[in-house]
Design goal:
Layout lengths: L2 H9 L2 E6 L6 H9 L24 H12 L6 E5 L9 H7 L1 E5 H4 L12 H5 L11 E6 L2 E3 L9 E2 L2 E4 L1 E5 L2 H14 L5 E4 L4 H6 L3 E5 L4 E4 H8 L3 H7 L11 H11 L4 E2 L4 E4 L6 H13 L4 E4 L7 H15 L1
Parallel strand pairs: 1-2, 1-4, 2-3, 7-12, 8-9, 13-14
Antiparallel strand pairs: 4-11, 5-14, 6-7, 8-10
Helix pairs in contact: 3-13, 12-13
Length: about 325
């Protein structure tokens, strides 16, 4: 990335959008109960209505403050909620941090029949409709943390989004060849693994799929608008209140569509990911220590509510130190 592209990117305003839900809110729980029967629709993910999907341990506080610390060049930060407001985010605090609350009703205007929704994929399909949103924006879940200083060119190279992740096959035979043969012919592999036939991959007619990392996603608003502005695809994404295998993942669709036409850049392997299902407690503690010393710029801590108390304390201590 050269100096010219950096300056070009600085001149373009970049916003951040963070989605958040308070699963302990009685009104939220009431809504989920009213529409719980829809979680039995064919194709609904088995854990789509589990409480852990909507739980939080204060991650949003760290996510927002770390954005402001390590992405000082961001213009606005939008927090998208369903008639909720974090207790710590007072009017004065929001003003100080440049945070703007956006309700689901604002971005679902004209599509209110699909509310309430409990599917992140449905919400992601209309984030581009936030009023006043920059043409280039970052999208984060509230468990995404920017733990090191960044520049705009970490996310956009000129007008091209920087996409993080790795290529995977969607064909079992191709995956077998990659795993057992191609490493002999091509030591530096550019492919890995196997992914199921995702709806967006099927739409694009692809044999490979770029599986995104759990790190901030760089998004072009115009591209999202072209794909989801009152299209059949939009309605087919919004029609499921709980996450369903038949839903396109808007963020994955955006990234793979951009890569398909060479309108995106593949970024560095500069993220870390921890979850209770993939690491034991001691490994997570070690991971946090390594993270503080390593070169990763981004950290995702998934399902913090599922960690045991000791590990949870380790993670929260690490995040607190990252704020200093």
């Amino acid at each position: 990335m050269n100096e010219t592209s950096s300056e070009d990117c600085v001149l373009r305003p970049i916003d951040a959008v963070v989605t958040w839900v308070d699963g302990n809110d009685p009104e939220h729980q009431r809504k989920r109960m009213v529409f719980s029967s829809e979680s039995s629709r064919v194709g609904t993910l088995a854990n789509a209505n589990l409480s852990t999907r909507f739980a939080h341990e204060g991650e949003l506080y760290f996510s927002i403050h770390l954005l402001r610390k390590n992405c000082p060049w961001l213009r606005k930060i939008f927090v998208v909620t369903d008639e909720q407001r974090p207790e710590w985010l007072t009017h004065d605090t929001a003003t100080q941090l440049g945070v703007h609350l956006v309700d689901h009703r604002d971005i679902f205007e004209g599509y209110e029949q699909y509310l309430p929704t409990f599917s992140s994929r449905a919400i992601e399909a209309v984030l581009w409709r936030i009023k006043g949103l920059a043409d280039q924006y970052l999208y984060l879940n509230d468990d995404f943390f920017v733990v090191r200083k960044t520049s705009p060119t970490d996310f956009f190279e000129g007008s091209k989004p920087v996409i993080r992740g790795s290529w995977v096959w969607i064909n079992r035979t191709a995956a077998y060849v990659e795993r057992n043969i191609s490493h002999i012919l091509r030591p530096k592999k550019s492919w890995a693994g196997l992914v199921g036939l995702r709806p967006e991959a099927k739409m694009l007619g692809a044999f490979r799929y770029f599986r995104l990392a759990h790190a901030p996603y760089s998004i072009l608003k115009k591209q999202m608008e072209n794909s989801f502005d009152d299209t059949k695809l939009l309605h087919e994404t919004l029609m499921y209140r709980f996450r369903n295998i038949n839903q396109v993942w808007p963020i994955g669709y955006h990234a793979n569509q951009a890569l398909r036409v060479s309108n995106a850049v593949i970024g560095a392997r500069d993220w870390s990911y921890i979850s209770p299902s993939s690491f034991g407690g001691k490994v997570i503690e070690k991971q946090c220590i390594l993270q503080s010393l390593g070169s990763s710029k981004f950290l995702c801590v998934q399902s913090l509510d599922q960690f045991d108390d000791n590990v949870k304390s380790t993670v929260l201590n690490f995040l607190n130190k990252s704020l200093v």
